[in-house]
Automatic annotation (TrEMBL):
<protein>
    <recommendedName>
        <fullName>Cytochrome c domain-containing protein</fullName>
    </recommendedName>
</protein>
<keyword id="KW-1133">Transmembrane helix</keyword>
<dbReference type="GO" id="GO:0046872">
    <property type="term" value="F:metal ion binding"/>
</dbReference>
<keyword id="KW-0479">Metal-binding</keyword>
<feature type="domain" description="Cytochrome c">
    <location>
        <begin position="52"/>
        <end position="151"/>
    </location>
</feature>
<keyword id="KW-0349">Heme</keyword>
<dbReference type="InterPro" id="IPR036909">
    <property type="entry name" value="Cyt_c-like_dom_sf"/>
</dbReference>
<dbReference type="InterPro" id="IPR009056">
    <property type="entry name" value="Cyt_c-like_dom"/>
</dbReference>
<dbReference type="GO" id="GO:0009055">
    <property type="term" value="F:electron transfer activity"/>
</dbReference>
<feature type="domain" description="Cytochrome c">
    <location>
        <begin position="197"/>
        <end position="291"/>
    </location>
</feature>
<feature type="transmembrane region" description="Helical">
    <location>
        <begin position="7"/>
        <end position="29"/>
    </location>
</feature>
<dbReference type="InterPro" id="IPR051459">
    <property type="entry name" value="Cytochrome_c-type_DH"/>
</dbReference>
<dbReference type="Pfam" id="PF00034">
    <property type="entry name" value="Cytochrom_C"/>
</dbReference>
<keyword id="KW-0472">Membrane</keyword>
<dbReference type="GO" id="GO:0020037">
    <property type="term" value="F:heme binding"/>
</dbReference>
<keyword id="KW-0812">Transmembrane</keyword>
<keyword id="KW-0408">Iron</keyword>
Amino acid sequence: MKKFLKWTGWVLGSLVVVLLIAYIIIYFMSENRLNKTYPLAVKPVKVPSGPEAVAAGERVAKMRDCTGCHNEHFEGKVFIEDPALGRVIAPNLTGGQGSPTANYNDQDWVRAIRHGLNKEGKPLKIMPSEVFYAISNQDLGNMIAYLKALPKVNSNLPESNLKPLARTLLTFNVIPLLPYERIDHQAPIQEVVLPSVSAEYGKYLTTTCSGCHGANFKGGEPHGEGAPRIANITPGGNLGKWSEEEFKKVLRTGVTPEGKRLETKFMPWNMTKDMTDDELKAIFLYLKSLPA
């Protein structure tokens, strides 16, 4: 019996040592990715000034659901607080106390929004730059004009802190924590995208939607505990049964033809409720054109 207990203790002790060594390796591998500096040459974007540009930028920011992460007044918030994964902060963008953008110039804004890098060239966590990358230079310039004009709000948010599970999942590329790594930073950018009632324009407007619904818009597993399964918004899902008017009603009221009420924390229809009829029709045409 003593020999068995001694052997068991040796095995368990060895296992603890192996796991400790494995985590030390994972920690330093993840830390290297989290703090790596990328010397990216950022292509300049013209940032206009004046009330018209600010108003246009506010509309772009709303249609791209920036407040869904950065809070109603862009003062930031704790975006993820999970006992297993840790904490991720969506920062204050107003330039007030506690805001990392207080000393941003126009190039820094482009680097952050389009490329997912902070002022020092280090990767931002979860910032969905992969869906913002293709925004036209005109829309991005107007959005930056709006963000620069925001009233300053002071905040005192805690630091982001990743726990061992999150670092392990990052190391093995299970979670898309660092969007910079998934972007083709040399892909061409359109200077201006002109509105039109077309599937092509609908595709441009739905780049943000792909962040949740996936590149093929067929949805998938929930993004968190308590969240519903992400809907298939191709003709293979319920959208295939909806008329154009029913589709518009869903994106303006959050109620589906089946009578289901969509919660804004899972389906942010508040970002689409003020879209024009032409914009919603363009989105409808594009989604209807997708493979089921």
